[in-house]
Amino acid sequence: MALRFPEDFLWGASTAAHQVEGNNTNSDFWLMENLEGSLFKERSGSAVDHYRLFKEDIALLSSFGLNSYRFSIEWARIEPEEGQFDRAAIEHYREVLLACRNNNVTPIVTLHHFSTPQWLIREGGWESPETPARFARYCSHVMKELGELIPYVCTINEANISIGIAKIIKRHQSGGSQAQVGINTDNMSQMQKYFMALGQAFGVHPQQVHSFLGARSEKGLEVIFKSHLEARSAIRRISPNTQIGLTLSLYDIQSIPGGEEHAAHAWHEEFLQFLPYMEDDDFFGLQNYTRTVYGPEGLLPIPVEAEKTQMGNEYYPEALGAVVRFVSKHLEKPIMITENGIATDNDERRIAFVDSALKGVQACISEGIPVIGYMHWSLLDNFEWQLGFSKTFGLIEVDRTTQERKPKPSAYHLGSIARNNSI
Question: TM segments (predicted)?
Fold first, then answer.
């Protein structure tokens, strides 16, 4: 018997501006990628040229059978210098939103997805107490111009990402292996030189380069909380019909006997401490890719025999349903799955992953949990930050020499599920 989803379920895919648009020259990441000795494996350059080819990409998404598209508006394009708003950039994103409307696609807009204007980093970045007001001002400008076209908005993508980054750094400092740490730590002197160069490029002390993808102090985490609250308040005043949420990246946090306390602490750090700041949100954006397992001594390594993705994550699609259930016990709000997927060059494994993940979601819905949508990560193979273009998450392959789009079987498979509203 086919498992049915609600008739108004949002079926879609996600992207992030810096990863797909190309030539995002006023962002902090552009500067970091292009420094001599950069830790980025390659530069984003023209990426997959989505800034020019967005109409084609949205039409493709619709042709698969998907009815929603989650994408981000790039702050560094809208406000390239503080207080200077770029009319052409606003009109570009108006065209993106209209392309969604013309293809009967519901847009879900993220206002900050990791990349930040260079000027904000010079002014203290995501540790500055002035950042919440600056972020709210940008959000206000976008919503005044475009709010009537935006039914759903995520203020900040993965507001908890710095907590995971801090754990990675801590594992390295305590002598964890490269596999446990999750980053290449072969050349720490190169990293030190790079951070010195970063400071010079931004015109601040190296320790004062506070991009979004960095470890936060307690004060910096408070900046994230306040940025969401002030943005939400501004959006509500300007665009009261827009539904507002926040996205968090959540592992399915498990434990073996003796690891329960470690797991409970991880749930608090990565999710529960954010609950007070989401009380007045309209929905929650849930992002999940895999699980973590804790034992008596802390985080356990992935079993040697486990299947792994290109990102080094355990292939574990069952994680999604488990996380939906955990979230629903603590947060009485509609849940939108804003990211879920895998990096793999084996599209059959992507299809199997989607099927297993969605069976878990449907089981949650049948239990009465209000899941309102599923956005696959990602629509296109794209620029995976420091790792470059080698990690293939997309439903669509891109030949970057020609920018030709090549939909994968998984795109049509997910579209078929969406058309039939069942799996």
Answer: none
For residue 1, is it within any domain? Answer: no
Q: Which long-range contacts (CB under 8 A, 24 or more apart) does 29-33 make?
A: 29/114, 29/115, 29/211, 29/385, 30/76, 30/118, 31/118, 31/198, 31/201, 31/202, 32/198, 32/211
Task: For residue 280, give the amino acid letter.
Answer: D
Residue 406 lies in a domain: yes
Cα separation values, 61 from 93, 185, 316, 388, Å: 17, 38, 26, 24
Examine the pLDDT at 303 and tell me if it is beyond 50: yes
pLDDT at position 187, please? Answer: 63
Residue 4 within any structural domain of the chain = no
Counting every residue written for the chain, the total comes to 423
Residue 379 lies in a domain: yes
Position 192 scores a pLDDT of: 82
pTM of the complete model beyond 0.90: yes
Rounded percentage of the chain residues whose pLDDT exceeds 90: 90
pLDDT at 179 over 70: no
**pLDDT digit string (tens) for 203-241?**
999 999 999 998 889 999 999 999 999 999 999 999 999
Q: Tell me, yes or no, if 305 is annotated catalytic.
A: no
Residues 6 or more apart whose Cβ sits within 8 Å of residue 50 = 15, 20, 21, 22, 57, 380
CA distance 127 to 243: 28
Which residues, 6 or more positions from 76, have their beta carbon under 8 angstroms from its beta carbon?
A: 24, 26, 27, 28, 30, 115, 116, 117, 118
Q: What is the mean pLDDT of the chain?
A: 95
Spatial CA neighbour of 284 closest among 258, 251, 248, 311:
248
Phi and psi, residue 194, nearest 5°: -65, -45
Q: What is the pLDDT of residue 181?
A: 33
| Domain that residue 158 falls in | 10-420
319-330: per-residue pLDDT in tens? 999 999 999 999
List 33, 79, 158, 339, catalytic entry: 158
Q: Count of domains in the chain? A: 1
Q: Give the CATH number of the domain where residue 35 resides.
A: 3.20.20.80
Regarding beta strands 291-295 and 252-255, do their DSSP bridges make them parallel or antiparallel, or are they unpaired?
A: parallel
* Tokens 């995501």, located at residue: 126
